[in-house]
Amino acid sequence: xxxxxxxxxxxxxxxxxxxxxxxxxxxxxxxxxxxxxxxxxxxxxxxxxxxxxxxxxxxxxxxxxxxxxxxxxxxxxxxxxxxxxxxxxxxxxxxxxxxxxxxxxxxxxxxxxxxxxxxxxxxxxxxxxxxxxxxxxxxxxxxxxxxxxxxxxxxxxxxxxxxxxxxxxxxxxxxxxxxxxxxxxxxxxxxxxxxxxxxxxxxxxxxxxxxxxxxxxxxxxxxxxxxxxxxxxxxxxxxxxxxxxxxxxxxxxxxxxxxxxx
Amino acid sequence: xxxxxxxxxxxxxxxxxxxxxxxxxxxxxxxxxxxxxxxxxxxxxxxxxxxxxxxxxxxxxxxxxxxxxxxxxxxxxxxxxxxxxxxxxxxxxxxxxxxxxxxxxxxxxxxxxxxxxxxxxxxxxxxxxxxxxxxxxxxxxxxxxxxxxxxxxxxxxxxxxxxxxxxxxxxxxxxxxxxxxxxxxxxxxxxxxxxxxxxxxxxxxxxxxxxxxxxxxxxxxxxxxxxxxxxxxxxxxxxxxxxxxxxxxxxxxxxxxxxxxxxxxxxxxxxxxxxxxxxxxxxxxxxxxxxxxxxxxxxxxxxxxxxxxxxxxxxxxxxxxxxxxxx
Lengths: 262, 327
Description:
The complex is a heterodimer.
Chain A: H1 2-33, H2 45-58, H3 60-92, H4 94-108, H5 116-123, H6 127-151, H7 155-163, H8 168-205, H9 211-220, H10 224-252
Chain B: H1 2-16, E1 23-32, E2 35-45, E3 50-54, H2 61-69, E4 76-81, E5 84-85, E6 93-96, H3 108-112, H4 120-133, H5 149-161, E7 167-171, H6 179-196, E8 199-204, H7 207-213, E9 216-221, E10 224-230, H8 242-261, E11 266-275, E12 280-287, E13 290-297, H9 298-303, E14 311-316, E15 321-325
Parallel strand pairs in B: 3-8, 3-9, 6-7, 7-8
Antiparallel strand pairs in B: 1-2, 1-4, 4-5, 9-10, 11-12, 11-14, 12-13, 14-15
């Protein structure tokens, strides 16, 4: 009974957040059609859609998206993997922490983008430079969160595990890793966000393919619709990465009432 | 019929392995840095006995339990389980903590199976069996976060029981539960103890809990056992009964006064000077350790006059010095 009554309300409340963006889009379209907006500043939304369709049909769009996504994920895998590994080591072993942590904390204060001139000198402007920048930027988000995750595992649970005969890898698998997981996933989400920022900057410097290349190229020819399409693509990819991270959290932290869907 | 043979099997199995561990503690000393917590404590517990340890916070009762569990190292003296070094019997000792300490990322049944080896179906069958004993068979696949405090402690009890402990250590496991759940849990623990006949050592703040469950109540004060009282009331014990209440009252009274007879924070001396002021007065006392000043209310000085040259007993409390005269 109550289901019938709440259904329209539910539909209403799920539409409400979209009301403002849709009206803005309509207003923008109207302004472009009436000639209030020059296409050199902003193309009409329909033109962006058309550019997207044309590029998608020619296959060019997918090529660029593929190159960018692969570039981002490779950098993420290298930097994130190293960050996770070192975070696990420094978090688990006091000696490794003493040996490494101070150095890492010092390097952490260097903004990755400040390294661009040096990176260009080292690696030139090809693929390695971009991967290095992304890996460097992503590394610390995972390193710090993994380290703190391991350190903040409830010592009472570790004591319990030991008193029930868990040790070594078993203690790690049953108690320490799951205890650190929520913090590690925070690191993953943060790193994914950062990954796109660095990718965009790196691709804008120079590239022979990728979304950044596509946008910079379009700028040369004053194709504002393609420029806008590129910006939108970055947004969509960023959102996708965030959704993926959320799904991981739902799946791996389903025991935690704060993350469970219900 | 079926049930009978299963129960018979369990009884035979229980009889095959001697159910309770004998505990022998000799001149046990524990220090944390400069602070000595246990001062040469002696204790022996018979197999299958249920011993409750009461005492104020910080008296060393939890430390004693942690040493028995092997969670901390002994500084001096030794602990023998079945006349052997305690390490040899480590697998026969299980501890229930004040908080349930369940792994939140493992389901109830996975929590119970922690540290067990064997085939998955075998472990699951055993886990379901102990879960049924604590009355939670229907919650096997829940997350611990969905259970109430009392249910969590039941799971913790099941987790200890599945190892068939011969010595079960209980570190205030019911301290955080509401009164009704606590009595329910006491009944459950008593019932399971009678069924499995392990030796049990319960540390508690709650004297009535000690009286309800224990064969023997020990009072620990300042790292020593200052009272060792056998409880001969028939089981199951009812909280309201006269004998129950009388024993509880006696132990409570002893617990309250034990501080006054404790000689570690007291010193005798002679009054050398009394400085009377409007509200507060100062009494100077010469003791073997030096001159001592106690600040007392002038009003109470008027009610209970102190004499110059009189003998007094000074007791150091956390923020004041109390004075008592002889007789």
